[in-house]
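Q: We require from you a single protein entry containing the residue sequence and its fold in token form, and nothing else.
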Amino acid sequence: MPMTASTPTPPAWRSIVSRFVIPLGAMVIAFAAGWTVGNGHSTAEPTADWIDAKVVVTDTVANVKVGSATYEVGQSVPGWVDEAGTWQANGWPACLPDGFSGTVPVLVSSTTVDNTTITAVVAVSCTG
């Protein structure tokens, strides 16, 4: 009688390992790698310091001089702190009425969009 070759049946546990354990292990490793990379980036938070700037307001336009740079702010400031210390989103700071000329703490920030760096006054503090 000739012998026929037969493929042995793999044990049942091997099917479970192939279907569940290996993909689960890969997901855990991918999650851990993402967590580690993400954690490394999240600790590098941008910092900004309030800078005393010379501000002159004419109508609804403020010229803000910080060092050798002058920024123009018109109609609205992205954020400002009112005299009570409460954060206000957008709008015009109450401490910058028409004709104002004086020193006010400001936050200046830069961002790059399409290879162009934009620097602007992003906040004003009326508490100082």
